[in-house]
């Protein structure tokens, strides 16, 4: 079987065809050109099997939970709590932006949801407090990539599904890298705030006021505790945890905070179904594409090509990071994981790289790609919210991208940073 499907796929992507159709048309045309129409039935079977998966049901539930919490005003309580805790430092509002992204990550698992929900709050507020709009949009985009790294994470669920690794173990492995990115962004923001004279957001508040803010946001803060505690403690599976998150979000928003009416749930359900349908169709198409990658021998071709450059694992890991960062500039995180995971994963695992270690390195790489020009999705979201040009935001992003790339190389060459927690919990 030839590699024509791969070149057709790349051509269709360059022609701006939606990824899901490129994933299906590429193999379909290739099989016709090669006279291998007998494999059409297998291709369609793989497409269906890619959708027919119990672990994959976690994605629609997490999408639903994130939408309910956002519509229920839980995002606002997170912002208030972050501002009460760190709003008094130099550049405080930018720091609150990062802190809110860290907390919001435990609810949504989506960089786009983070950039959209928090961007609408912070970008106008930061501009009114003396920050430039491009800088406000840049810090919003940079901090939003924490969303898919801190569990629950949609990207990690996709990777775990297609590469058959533990979702719970991958969730545990993502905690430390996510926190490292948040701390690195805060350090860089502190440096820029002092250099540029950015203002404080507010005067220090009393511990009593902080306690009030904490109580208001406690239901939101308990969400990741319940989810991770239940998953890592063996109380429920990641799929069941996603359903628990959705039910918990309804209970908190409708019956505890009274910020969401029951009649509003129908609109949220419809929106969640639409988003879930898009994601699941993409997964099914990617599973079919991954199958043809396997039978065509492309993975072995790539492995042999990289091995011809060097047989040093450290050099190959460096090349992997550069390659994934470049891919992230043009391809969305979900398709990148689904298409490249089956190609690159087996090679590096055969070289002795721990499957969870490789999984985290890949997931963090493609997630950071969401904030890199020219095609970074959260850049476009931040641009739409701030009404600033993408290229202007990208210039202000450079110091923050430097921090995120540094974290990528740290977790690449020091596996203990991401593997210590999963090993302690018995997953690696």
Describe this structure in words.
α10 packs across α20 and α16 runs antiparallel to α17. This protein is mainly α.
Which helices and strands occur, and which strands form pairs?
Blueprint: H1 4-14, H2 19-33, H3 40-51, H4 58-71, H5 74-86, H6 92-108, H7 111-128, H8 133-144, H9 154-163, H10 167-196, H11 207-232, H12 238-256, H13 265-296, H14 298-309, H15 313-328, H16 333-350, H17 355-368, H18 377-386, H19 390-413, H20 416-424
Helix pairs in contact: 1-2, 2-13, 3-13, 4-12, 4-13, 5-6, 5-11, 6-7, 6-8, 6-10, 6-11, 7-8, 7-18, 8-18, 8-19, 9-16, 9-17, 10-17, 10-19, 10-20, 11-12, 13-16, 14-16, 15-17, 15-19, 16-17, 17-19
Keywords:
about 425 residues, single chain, globular
Main sheet record: none
Give the overall pLDDT as a whole number. Answer: 82
Structural class by helix and strand composition: mainly alpha
Number of helices: 20
> In terms of quaternary structure, what is this?
single chain
Instruction: Indicate how many domains the architecture comprises.
Output: 1
Number of strands: 0
Note the beta-strand portion.
under 5%
The rough form would be described as globular
Terminal residue distance: 37 Å
SSE arrangement, N to C = HHHHHHHHHHHHHHHHHHHH
Low-confidence stretches: none
Helix content: over 70%
Report the radius of gyration as a whole number of Å.
22 Å
